[in-house]
Amino acid sequence: MNPAQLSIALLAVLFLTISVCWIAITLKEGRKALDDCQKQ
Fold it and tell me: Residue 2 phi/psi, 5° resolution?
């Protein structure tokens, strides 16, 4: 694997990690908002 392919692969892994974290945080916030709406 040449350096260009390696850097693209690392960038893809970084992007995937950030995306998964963002989705998890969004879902957690959504569940919290639903719980708050149901309590009111």
Answer: -85, 170
Give pLDDT, residue 40.
Answer: 79
* Sequence-ordered list of residues with C-beta below 8 angstroms from that of 1, at least 6 positions apart, any chain: 9
Pairwise CA distance, residues 37 & 30, whole Å = 11
What's the pTM value of the predicted model, to 2 decimals?
A: 0.74
Q: Which amino acid is at 37?
A: C
Q: What is the band of 23 on the pLDDT scale with cuts at 50, 70, 90?
A: very high
Q: Are 1 and 9 in contact (CB under 8 A)?
A: yes
SS3 1: coil
